[in-house]
Design brief:
291 residues, 6-stranded mixed sheet, alpha+beta, elongated, Beta Polymerase, domain 2, Methane Monooxygenase Hydroxylase, Chain G, domain 1
Length: 291
């Protein structure tokens, strides 16, 4: 079974949407992340900040660049003028252990950086080939530091959660199609079947971990809203997302149980077949021996 990167496909998202550009902006409006055309913000990002009330998500291949620094400075000024708040910049750097060899045959360790300034979220640096751990982005310390709960943070979690949920549905459908007649059949290629079931089970366990971390992060947000109650808080949205994460976690457990039952049924069918074959062979041998 092919290795999938699930729903933290920020690397793929950057590769497919940015093309040869190093930076891509998304704006949050009506609960949806919208791609912002480069021409709309390249020279002056302030009109875009006004359009989306500062709710922006930036994906950048560059760990740091003049463009990013300019955007952060401009946002800081915009926030003081429009929100009347001095937005502190908070940065988290996550290192990952995939190494690349440069022209000098030296191993280079990669870094991924998460920047949060008010309603502005920046994901930048070397996007890992493997899934980005939720703990590296939505860790408790970061969420606790922002009790007002930036709505774009919720939008990203919603996007990731929906992507994982769809992946689980696809796996369940694939299993149903492959083994809907497992009570009366068995696979001729048992090694392939066992490998498929095992790799799929591992993938579902990873999805379960995703749902668990998502709900944990959302619960921290809910706790913060209780302590720092403000008007127009998105608590209802957070509660719905948390319920979705919990439900899909339980759904994943049910799928794993189904897979266990399928594996047992296939094993029993295989045993029955072998017994039947042995019995028929004995009859044939007896018949041949009596000739």
């Amino acid at each position: 079974m092919e290795n999938r990167n699930y729903f933290y496909e920020f690397k793929n998202l950057v590769d497919t949407t940015v093309d040869n550009e190093d930076t891509q902006l998304y704006g949050l409006k009506n609960g949806v992340l919208q791609t912002i055309n480069r021409a709309a913000w390249d020279r002056d990002i302030r009109p875009t900040l006004n359009t989306f009330s500062g709710n922006l998500v930036i994906l950048s291949k560059e760990h740091s660049s003049d463009r990013l620094e300019t955007i952060l400075r401009t946002y800081g000024v915009w926030a003081i003028e429009n929100i009347h708040e001095d937005m502190d910049i908070r940065k988290w750097v996550s290192e990952w252990n995939n190494y690349e060899t440069n022209e000098k045959k030296e191993l280079i360790k990669k870094k991924f950086q998460f920047i949060l300034q008010g309603q502005l979220i920046v994901l930048c640096g070397s996007f890992p080939d493997m899934a980005i751990d939720l703990d590296a982005i939505f860790e408790g310390a970061m969420i606790d530091a922002h009790p007002k709960c930036p709505s774009n943070m919720i939008a990203i979690i919603k996007f990731l959660l929906n992507h994982a949920s769809q992946r689980l549905s696809n796996i369940e459908g694939d299993i149903f199609i492959k083994y809907q007649n497992c009570s009366t059949t068995f696979p001729l290629r048992s090694a392939y079947c066992n490998s498929y079931l095992e790799s799929t089970r591992s993938e579902i366990l990873e999805l379960q971990e995703i749902f668990l971390k998502t709900t944990d992060s959302l619960q921290i947000m809910i706790n913060n809203l209780r302590c720092y109650c403000t008007s127009n808080t998105p608590r209802g949205t957070i509660e719905l997302l948390k319920a979705q994460g919990t439900r899909r976690y339980n759904d994943a457990a049910i799928v794993i149980e189904k897979m266990h039952n399928i594996a047992q049924a296939l094993q029993e069918n295989r045993k029955k077949l072998f017994k039947s074959v042995k019995k028929k062979l004995r009859v044939i041998y007896s018949a041949v021996g009596s000739i």
